[in-house]
Amino acid sequence: MIKFDQVTKRYPGSDEILKNVSLNIEAGELVFVTGHSGAGKSTLLKLIAAIERPTSGTVLIANQNISKLKPSAIPFMRRRFGLIFQDHKLLYDRNCFENVILPLHINGITGLEAAKR
After folding, report:
1. Cβ neighbours of 5 (radius 10 Å)
2. Are residues 80 and 102 located together in one domain of the fold?
3. How far apart are CA 40 and CA 50, in angstroms?
4. Which among 19, 27, 103, 20 has a CA at the least distance from the CA of 61?
């Protein structure tokens, strides 16, 4: 489902954050990304979510090369997996439940079904 093939990421004015990373995550696998500060954990996740593009190499999500996706197609690709960042971007005018249920409402899931999820 998620495949990195010789992925390198370099930000302007820095060394390579990731260098020639190859990995394969199958559907249903649970993956933990750990490491020291600056190891490239957040960069790896940003590449998966198409927030960043690789400097070189290929990132495939469900056999789609995310570097080739149009910006308008990225939200649809992101709906195929779950990803939670530390900066959760909560809306302060809503309680916890309302923040969690908002994306479901946007996707047309309302009422008891949304509350159940």
Report:
1. 15
2. no
3. 15
4. 27
Both 82 and 93 in a single domain?
A: no
CA distances from 16 to 19, 38, 46, 48, 56 (A): 6, 11, 15, 17, 11
Do residues 12 and 67 both lie within one domain? yes
pLDDT of residue 85: 67
Handedness of CA 12, 25, 38, 51 (dihedral sign): positive
Residue 36 · residue 42 · CB < 8 Å: no
- Please give the model's pTM, rounded to 2 decimal places: 0.73
Q: How many domains does the chain have?
A: 2
* Domain that includes residue 101, residue range: 89-117
Provide the CATH number for the domain around residue 31: 3.40.50.300
What's the pLDDT tens digit per position in 5-28?
999 999 998 889 999 999 999 988
